[in-house]
Amino acid sequence: MGLPRFHIDGHLYYITTVIYNRLPLFTRSAFIIPLLDSLNFYRYQHEFKLLGYIIMPDHLHLIVWLYGKSTVSDFMRDYKTFTSKRIIRQAQVEKITDWINAFEQAGLETGRSDNKVWQDSYWDENVYTERFLRQKLNYIHRNPLRSGLVEQPGDYPYSSYRNYELGQEWLIEIDRGWE
Length: 179
What we know:
It is a single chain. The chain is an alpha+beta fold. It has a domain at 12-128: Alpha-Beta Plaits (2-Layer Sandwich). The protein has five helices and four strands, in the order βαββααβαα. Strands 2-3-1-4 form a four-stranded antiparallel sheet, sandwiched between helices.
């Protein structure tokens, strides 16, 4: 049994979700682009502002500000379901049999589907203050450094760091309305 979730209208949420068995899928752009594309679609479908993100090889962090009727659970259910299908399909097209087998094995282990990409559930925290928001943004932007992937945050392409510090909006637009 996980921690209770608190949906508070107009709140910001720091979200973490992880690939099942921490398989490092997000080291190839063909698997990252569907995440960004789907994130952009669901920001309108579920009415949220995207304040920050990072896509690490086996997990991702998001900071979202829901302003519509959807909850974090609604968004994450749809996002993980759709991106799972796209990731599986991409692995099949590229004939990455190790990953395809891992998805099938994960499905067997959980007994809930033929294939499984994401771990069950996700972690979320309510963001109550601007200080906490900045702390979480700093944490996600420094994640690739702590993992030894890059030497500077700006060197990692799949992060909102480039949006904030370099003014680049080339992967996905960041909502800065909170500033």
